[in-house]
Amino acid sequence: SILITISGVLFMTGKPTYEELEQRIQALQSQVADTGETKKALQDSERKYKTLVQNIPGMIYRGYPDCSSEVVSGSGKICGYTAEELNSLEGKWLDLIHPDDKQEVFAQSQVLLEQHKDLIQIYRIQTKDGRIRFVEDHKRSVFSEKGELVGIDGIVFDITERKQTEEGLRESEKK
User: Fold this and answer.
1) pTM of the model
2) Of all helices (H) and strands (E), which one includes residue 63?
3) Nearest to 131 by CA among 64, 79, 76
4) Does 159 have pLDDT greater than 60?
């Protein structure tokens, strides 16, 4: 019989000898060991990614061309809704934008739909418990190699305290 290796896989033709079977078993064991190491490396990488994402002090999301969005993490800190709640709500994140700010947010965001750009927007949202919060939304449009809009990736930070401090300073300066 003849041993043939294709893409790292060992094949046998004809009736194998004992030595050929032993080589095949060793090759399979090596592949299984490699798979185990690869699986462990993948799990380690996934654990690092999850830890990183969970510890960012903002809400990470992807907006899609159909105006839907997928919240990845951090929404509870920003608006009181979990990612699962926001991802299952009918209107999702866009409905939380304060009505007085919504038109400007949409108008400014149009450039992201047409070309690869970065944009930072400051606007108000209404949280799950009804409070009004200021947020700073850092977003970037993502296009495919064919030039089609894939989505808008972003991270939203709560800047309410900063805005309150700025307002306090302005009031103090007026006095």
Assistant:
1) 0.72
2) strand 59-63
3) 79
4) yes
